[in-house]
């Protein structure tokens, strides 16, 4: 058999590395429908215009509210669309919140934010938490004691479990918040075989606050936009996952003012040419601002409680309506959390892409010092982008050396696990208030 000799001198073996496309999670948000659309229950549909939303509405549930939500949303612009999540007709606000909770549990990471029905701003009627009485953790416990929460006069009884450390009860976990409480119920913690009995106090919360509390950690990356009256803002105190909005007293019935901030939240798309701007003082359209005259006490009360509202830019000689002051219910600037979330979302995707591509490259990405250096560099590149895009003031990624980590964690090395990457990210804020000092001096002649 003859041998064929080609004139080729160099053979090039090319490996295609696919860079990750930016995650669009932060541009995805859903209006909550309770039977207001023709969609199948537990499904969601994308709408790019107000006309499309109108065509998809039913004559049931909160369809009028959905129309107002979408009308106000698209009055802000059409740079981003929205989804409507259909939960079906609900008998009560609590039932609607429970349906959303179940849906999110079964569909993790689908939406970054939810615009909730007004009716969900409910009074505190569930047990949101149990606080251990100061100095009341007890002693002598050898196993977590049962926790009993008294029932309401009507409704369902809350349940909880306990956690002990060094013989003392240090934490109570609510397993079922119950329903129908009008006052905080008594809490009984079983005594130890020998020692002192722990004591605790129940704290009531609204149903939507109980749901949002599950996402209030720095890694939550899920937000709930609620329309709240001034008196109810305290229900959401310290909850980072809630963005509360108090409408103007003179707003017309077709306005859904929380949709203005909802649009501004989703339209963010940080990049070199469109850095992340503060949420505070952004222009909004098609809504009636609060009248400053005669409302200063109420306005200050809302803002002091970290609620949001619409005012004019009259102080700056600007007639347009603006968002005041763009905060989450923990008191942070909302854009601060958005930037932190941006880094978390993008770095996770970039590292996953690097590991997958590393198994399809030549040379491959291996679990050694070079591999760690490679992943650290990938993460630092995302951190640098976070700073350039206005999502962070500074961001530094660190990595534990291969020898140090594997010596301390030999089982991790055998399993291919590396938990040695960490980042220090300083969030970016905008100006909310300026104090200007003026000293007037009269010269004596």
Record the SSE blueprint.
Layout: E1 29-33, E2 43-47, H1 50-55, H2 63-75, E3 82-86, H3 93-106, E4 113-115, E5 126-132, E6 147-149, E7 159-165, E8 168-176, E9 187-189, E10 200-205, H4 207-213, E11 223-227, E12 242-245, H5 258-267, E13 283-284, H6 296-304, E14 309-312, E15 321-324, H7 334-358, H8 369-388, E16 392-399, H9 402-408, H10 410-415, E17 421-427
Parallel strand pairs: 1-3, 1-4, 4-11, 11-12
Antiparallel strand pairs: 2-3, 5-10, 6-7, 6-9, 7-8, 13-15, 14-15, 16-17
Show unreliable segments: none
N/C terminus separation: 116 Å
How many strands? 17
Q: What's the alpha carbon Rg, rounded to whole Å?
A: 27 Å
State the order of secondary-structure elements, H for helix, E for strand.
Answer: EEHHEHEEEEEEEHEEHEHEEHHEHHE
The number of distinct helices, counting runs of at least 4 residues, comes to 10
Q: What descriptors fit this protein?
A:
17 strands, 10 helices, alpha/beta, single chain, 20% strand, 445 residues
Brief rundown of the structure:
With 445 residues, the chain is of the alpha/beta class. It is built from ten helices and 17 strands.
Characterise the protein shown here.
The chain is of the alpha/beta class. The chain folds into 3 domains: 25-121 and 212-332, no CATH class; 126-205, no CATH class; 335-427. The protein is 26% helix and 20% strand. It contains 10 helices and 17 strands. The strands form 5 sheets. The protein has a 6-stranded mixed sheet with strand order 2-3-1-4-11-12, sandwiched between helices. It has a 4-stranded antiparallel sheet with strand order 8-7-6-9, with no helix packed on it. A 3-stranded antiparallel sheet has the order 13-15-14, with helices on both faces. Strand 14 and strand 15 form a beta hairpin. Helix 2 packs across helix 5 and helix 7 packs antiparallel against helix 8 (369-388). The protein is globular. The relative contact order is 0.10. The mean pLDDT is 94.
């Amino acid at each position: 058999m003859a041998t064929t000799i080609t004139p080729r001198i160099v053979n090039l073996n090319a490996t295609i590395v696919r860079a990750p496309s930016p995650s669009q999670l932060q541009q995805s948000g859903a209006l909550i429908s309770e039977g207001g659309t023709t969609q199948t229950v537990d499904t969601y549909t994308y709408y790019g215009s107000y006309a499309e939303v109108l065509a998809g509405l039913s004559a049931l549930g909160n369809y009028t509210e959905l129309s107002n939500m979408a009308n106000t949303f698209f009055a802000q612009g059409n740079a981003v669309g929205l989804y409507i999540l259909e939960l079906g007709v609900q008998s009560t606000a609590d039932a609607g919140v429970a349906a959303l909770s179940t849906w999110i549990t079964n569909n993790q990471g689908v939406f970054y934010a939810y615009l909730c029905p007004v009716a969900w701003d409910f009074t505190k009627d569930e047990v949101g938490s149990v606080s251990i009485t100061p100095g009341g953790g007890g002693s002598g416990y050898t196993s977590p004691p049962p926790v009993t929460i008294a029932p309401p006069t009507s409704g369902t009884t809350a349940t909880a479990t306990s956690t002990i450390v060094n013989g003392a009860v240090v934490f109570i976990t609510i397993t079922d918040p119950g329903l129908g409480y009008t006052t905080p119920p008594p809490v009984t913690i079983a005594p130890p075989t020998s020692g002192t009995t722990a004591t605790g106090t129940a704290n009531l919360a609204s149903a939507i606050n109980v749901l949002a509390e599950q996402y209030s950690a720095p890694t939550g990356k899920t937000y709930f936009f609620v329309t709240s009256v001034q008196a109810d803002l305290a229900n959401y105190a310290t909850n980072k996952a809630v963005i509360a909005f108090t409408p103007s007293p003179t707003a017309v019935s077709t306005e859904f003012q929380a949709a203005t901030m909802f649009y501004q939240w989703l339209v963010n798309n940080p990049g070199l040419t469109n850095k992340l701007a503060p949420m505070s003082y952004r222009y909004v359209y098609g809504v009636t601002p609060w009248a400053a005259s005669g409302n200063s006490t109420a306005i200050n009360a809302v803002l002091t409680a970290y609620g949001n509202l619409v005012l004019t830019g009259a102080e700056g000689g600007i007639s347009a309506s603006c968002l005041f002051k763009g905060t989450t219910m923990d008191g942070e600037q909302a854009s601060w959390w958005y930037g932190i979330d941006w880094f978390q979302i993008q770095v996770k995707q970039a590292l996953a892409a690097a590991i997958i591509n590393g198994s399809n490259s030549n040379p491959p990405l291996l679990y050694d010092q070079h591999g760690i250096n490679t992943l650290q560099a990938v993460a630092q590149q995302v951190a640098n982008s976070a700073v350039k895009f206005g999502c962070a003031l500074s961001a530094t990624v660190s990595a534990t050396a291969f020898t140090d980590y594997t010596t301390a964690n030999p089982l991790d090395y055998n399993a291919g696990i590396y938990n040695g990457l960490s980042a220090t990210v300083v969030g970016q804020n905008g100006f909310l208030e300026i104090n200007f000092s003026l000293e007037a001096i009269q010269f004596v002649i």
